[in-house]
Each structure stands twice: as C-alpha cells, then as structure tokens.
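Quick log. Single chain, no ligands specified.
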Amino acid sequence: MILKGSQFQIKVWKYLKTIPKGKVKTYKQVAIGINKPKSARAVANACGKNPYSPKIPCHRVIRSDGTLGGFSGPGGLKAKKKLLKKEGFLL
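-> predicted structure:
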C-alpha cells in the first residue's frame, strides 16, 4: 500500500500498524515511539487525517487520561468503541 500524506503523517501511520490487536497506546506514547516526544497533538491530528482506517488502526490510540478521544473513521466514536471491543480491548 502506498501511503499518501505528509512525511509526519506517514511516520505516524506506519507506527500505528505496529500496535497489536487488543492493545492501545496514548497519543503521547505514539509521539515518543516516533521520536517526537512533544508532538502528541500533532499525532492526534495525523490520526484524524488517516484515510486508511481501519487498515491503519488509529482506533488503537487513546488520550492520556484513558478516554477514547475522537475517531474520524466512518461511524465516529461508536465505531471506535466497536472496533476496540471486537479486538478484545475492555472499555
């Protein structure tokens, strides 16, 4: 799959593919994972612009306070909950 986006977005999206099913990471953990520890907000924006959901699993990224945050994929937050539940993540 050839990804179309900014270099930063592509870096985030490639990292998201490494998050295993049934697991979640926070936007901050993803930022640290791509060696941009102060870019949690930019990571959230990249997730929000992900046109490849759910193939690139931005639904596996949550806020630091444990809440789900947003989901720009079809179905919105309801779909994010459903995807996480289906993967075995307890909400």
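The domain at 7-86 is CATH 1.10.10.10 (Arc Repressor Mutant, subunit A).
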